[in-house]
Amino acid sequence: MRYHMKHIERFFKHNSDPGELPEEPFLIRPHHAARYKDLSRKSPKRNARFSRNVISQGYETYVEDVVGTTDEDQNVFERALTDVYVRYKNLPETHQIKLVPGQKDEICGTCILGKHCTMNDQYEFTPPFVGLLDEPDATKKDTKILFAIKEKAEKMGKPVQEVQETAIFLDAEPKDVVSLLINAGDLKKVLRKIPTYKIR
Hints:
The chain is α+β, with helices and mostly antiparallel strands. Helix content is 40%, strand content 12%.
């Protein structure tokens, strides 16, 4: 299945109803899994405010790209992220979640600019040392996290399904990746048990 940006942008509307549940699988980029894990300890609004405050203290170009440069930008970001977290928490236990390496998801859609959510341009917006720690291919780190989640799910006896996908990028050619399908209730249980360092 190919995910084109126009196809998924409808989930990124900042004025969308957080109570409205998509019929299609809820899309998560694997390195965002830790952000959803935090919801087991914090409310959606508190978690969004925490993200805003932490990101605002970060690397200048990343801050501008994610939360913006004005109070209005940051308020828009916080409201949008809160809505995403509310939708995630409201997912029925059996609603499918799809983890897709490299593919923009709902959290990416909350960014004011979102230029770092790409295949190759991400390091223009993050601290220089990050490029030394991570692979330049945005799907590689995501894939490692995806398989860490899969391994934990299988150890817990939770059903997961691998699916071949084509991730779409604005700055690179489409790339075939392995994605993971899992029920929302099972993923929430898995994220509560998996160490955070394995999914960051």
